[in-house]
């Protein structure tokens, strides 16, 4: 048998390379779309500024793809991700969580080759679409794979590693692209500035394909397929350093078996997500990702170059360097969630994040509305601005610096709140028999709105004069604050099976923490094992294990 990695943190580190691919694909546009080489190659219509010498900044002028076309190029990745996310649940249930990740990496390699070798916009769009299929599968699979493996008291921290990996992927790829931009030639036609970064992005996929055999399979997937001894072995490996007699390991294994019995005979198809009480859970996992997109964060990720052009930064080098700061902020500010999310809880984190991000969006909208004006394209400084930038603050002014500051504050608010929780929460809420398919629906919500925003934002910046788009995202943040307060129960610190009790309690979401504190099923079982009152047999069917003497029948009702 191949040796398996046993530390949940090490497992997260390798599995979350899928998040790095996600980050690579986000940054693959934001760093490159403002460069002259990209604009010349994928547009073709360029002109020379006669007042400048060849090679000087601004000598060659190309607007690049127009707003609609650039929106389509950018949206190809989330479009493919939507397809990948919808297929992820079936792949993960049929072949296993690790196999789904391997399939995703195969798509990534093909898409990266096509993007790197792109001869025209059509080939680039196809490559990004195939890359997106990989990201969709990985973004749906990794969070619930980690949730199914992790001990309950560190589950938030472990699953949050997905978001941290995304932020690292964004930052690393952005700086790779920034470095390659210095290889630009005088006529703007040196394609290495974008071909090399899109080729290098294959490396992480090759690495994770080699590491997958060392990662353990999900114990809940194994139990679902009647491989109970294997499931117990994995729980012991990850939770107790291989000690299969550990009371907490045996208690969680017993909970998994009980849960399998309770769910036996119930539907496991996609339609079952929308039936009865499951509809409420499905709406939670879906809207967690939808609201994460509607915060406006991906505007900062995909189109930060346009945002800083609106703030008055004209030259490409200054724009690129200023943009890169937000990626470093994103990485650093995700760390507090890794450390404290299991202490903070999910609800407070989401509520505080929505309030802070809404304030930043409102302030930037006001700055643009009161201090900005239409772009005068007769001025030389505005000659090479894309048509997406139709409203702009004065170059070098205090208003532009204020807008940049609140853009950074927005990123610093998203990174420790909605960024990680949007992956953690949907992995905790579903019942086990539908967890993989719920992961698909959740990630599909992410990519559905990611696709819409990728395509919508450039025309919105042009037609709504930018501040209208900021006010719209402010409204979305207000709505998500209200929705979370009224509908999202707390889930921290309990096993995936214990979380079911919260949804059976019929207690309002804002009082769910009280119910959470009264759920001790896993602890009760662990104590029964330690006393010798409960014997757990991995070889028996899920309903064959003895019940604890304290409450012979109540446990099954609680876990329904």
UniProtKB/TrEMBL annotation:
<feature type="transmembrane region" description="Helical">
    <location>
        <begin position="166"/>
        <end position="184"/>
    </location>
</feature>
<protein>
    <submittedName>
        <fullName>Putative high-affinity glucose transporter</fullName>
    </submittedName>
</protein>
<dbReference type="InterPro" id="IPR003663">
    <property type="entry name" value="Sugar/inositol_transpt"/>
</dbReference>
<feature type="transmembrane region" description="Helical">
    <location>
        <begin position="128"/>
        <end position="146"/>
    </location>
</feature>
<dbReference type="InterPro" id="IPR050360">
    <property type="entry name" value="MFS_Sugar_Transporters"/>
</dbReference>
<keyword id="KW-0813">Transport</keyword>
<dbReference type="InterPro" id="IPR036259">
    <property type="entry name" value="MFS_trans_sf"/>
</dbReference>
<feature type="transmembrane region" description="Helical">
    <location>
        <begin position="196"/>
        <end position="215"/>
    </location>
</feature>
<feature type="transmembrane region" description="Helical">
    <location>
        <begin position="69"/>
        <end position="92"/>
    </location>
</feature>
<keyword id="KW-1133">Transmembrane helix</keyword>
<feature type="region of interest" description="Disordered">
    <location>
        <begin position="536"/>
        <end position="560"/>
    </location>
</feature>
<keyword id="KW-0762">Sugar transport</keyword>
<feature type="transmembrane region" description="Helical">
    <location>
        <begin position="402"/>
        <end position="426"/>
    </location>
</feature>
<dbReference type="GO" id="GO:0016020">
    <property type="term" value="C:membrane"/>
</dbReference>
<comment type="similarity">
    <text>Belongs to the major facilitator superfamily. Sugar transporter (TC 2.A.1.1) family.</text>
</comment>
<feature type="transmembrane region" description="Helical">
    <location>
        <begin position="99"/>
        <end position="122"/>
    </location>
</feature>
<feature type="transmembrane region" description="Helical">
    <location>
        <begin position="348"/>
        <end position="369"/>
    </location>
</feature>
<dbReference type="InterPro" id="IPR020846">
    <property type="entry name" value="MFS_dom"/>
</dbReference>
<feature type="transmembrane region" description="Helical">
    <location>
        <begin position="324"/>
        <end position="341"/>
    </location>
</feature>
<feature type="transmembrane region" description="Helical">
    <location>
        <begin position="284"/>
        <end position="304"/>
    </location>
</feature>
<keyword id="KW-0472">Membrane</keyword>
<keyword id="KW-0812">Transmembrane</keyword>
<dbReference type="GO" id="GO:0005351">
    <property type="term" value="F:carbohydrate:proton symporter activity"/>
</dbReference>
<feature type="transmembrane region" description="Helical">
    <location>
        <begin position="12"/>
        <end position="34"/>
    </location>
</feature>
<feature type="domain" description="Major facilitator superfamily (MFS) profile">
    <location>
        <begin position="11"/>
        <end position="492"/>
    </location>
</feature>
<feature type="transmembrane region" description="Helical">
    <location>
        <begin position="469"/>
        <end position="488"/>
    </location>
</feature>
<dbReference type="Pfam" id="PF00083">
    <property type="entry name" value="Sugar_tr"/>
</dbReference>
<dbReference type="InterPro" id="IPR005828">
    <property type="entry name" value="MFS_sugar_transport-like"/>
</dbReference>
<dbReference type="InterPro" id="IPR005829">
    <property type="entry name" value="Sugar_transporter_CS"/>
</dbReference>
<feature type="transmembrane region" description="Helical">
    <location>
        <begin position="438"/>
        <end position="457"/>
    </location>
</feature>
């Amino acid at each position: 048998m191949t040796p398996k990695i046993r530390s949940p943190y090490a497992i997260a580190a390798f599995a979350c390379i899928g998040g790095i691919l996600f980050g690579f694909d986000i940054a693959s546009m934001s760093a490159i779309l403002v460069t002259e080489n990209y604009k010349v190659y994928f547009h073709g219509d360029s002109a020379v500024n006669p007042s400048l010498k060849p090679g000087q900044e601004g000598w060659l002028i190309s607007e690049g793809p127009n707003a609609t076309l650039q929106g389509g190029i950018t949206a190809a990745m989330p479009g493919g991700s939507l397809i990948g996310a919808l297929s992820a649940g079936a792949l993960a249930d049929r072949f296993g969580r690790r196999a789904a990740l391997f399939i995703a990496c195969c798509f990534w390699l093909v898409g990266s080759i096509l993007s790197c070798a792109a001869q025209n916009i059509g080939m680039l769009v196809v490559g990004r679409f195939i890359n997106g299929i990989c990201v969709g599968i990985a973004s749906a699979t990794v969070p619930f794979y980690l949730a199914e493996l992790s001990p309950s008291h560190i589950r938030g921290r472990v699953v949050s590693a997905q978001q941290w990996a995304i932020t690292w992927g964004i930052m690393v790829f952005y700086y790779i692209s920034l470095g390659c931009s210095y290889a630009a030639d005088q006529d703007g036609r040196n394609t290495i500035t974008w071909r090399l970064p899109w080729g290098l992005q294959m490396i992480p996929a090759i690495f994770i394909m080699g590491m997958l055999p060392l990662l353990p399979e999900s114990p809940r997937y194994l139990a679902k397929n009647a491989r109970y001894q294997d499931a117990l072995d994995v729980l012991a490996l990850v939770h107790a350093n291989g000690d299969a007699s550990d009371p907490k390991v045996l208690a969680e294994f017993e909970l998994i078996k009980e849960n399998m019995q309770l769910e036996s005979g119930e539907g496991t198809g996609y339609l079952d997500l929308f039936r009865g009480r499951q509809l409420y859970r499905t709406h939670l996992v879906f809207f967690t990702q939808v609201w994460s997109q509607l915060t406006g964060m991906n505007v900062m990720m995909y189109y930060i170059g346009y945002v800083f052009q609106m703030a008055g930064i004209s030259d490409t080098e200054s724009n690129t360097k200023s943009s890169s700061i937000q990626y470093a902020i994103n990485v650093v500010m995700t760390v507090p969630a890794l450390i404290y999310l299991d202490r903070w809880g999910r609800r407070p984190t989401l509520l505080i994040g929505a309030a802070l991000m809404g304030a930043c969006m409102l302030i930037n909208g006001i700055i643009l509305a009161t201090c900005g004006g239409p772009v005068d394209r007769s001025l030389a400084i505005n000659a090479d601005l894309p048509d997406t930038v139709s409203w702009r603050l004065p170059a070098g002014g205090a208003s532009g610096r204020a807008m940049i500051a609140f853009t950074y504050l927005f990123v610093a608010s998203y990174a420790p709140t909605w960024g990680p929780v949007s992956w953690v929460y949907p992995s905790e809420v579903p019942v086990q028999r539908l967890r993989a398919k719920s992961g698909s629906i959740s990630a599909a919500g992410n990519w559905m709105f990611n696709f819409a925003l990728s395509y919508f934002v450039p025309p919105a910046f042009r037609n709504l004069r930018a501040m209208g788009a900021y006010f719209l995202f402010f409204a979305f943040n207000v709505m998500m604050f209200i929705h979370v307060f009224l509908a999202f129960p707390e889930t921290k610190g309990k096993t995936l099976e214990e979380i079911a009790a919260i949804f059976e309690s019929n207690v309002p979401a804002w009082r769910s923490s009280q119910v959470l504190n009264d759920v001790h099923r896993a602890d009760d079982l662990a104590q029964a094992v330690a006393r010798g009152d409960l014997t757990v047999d991995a070889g028996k069917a899920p309903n064959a294990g003895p019940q604890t003497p304290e409450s012979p029948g109540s446990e099954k009702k609680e876990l329904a």
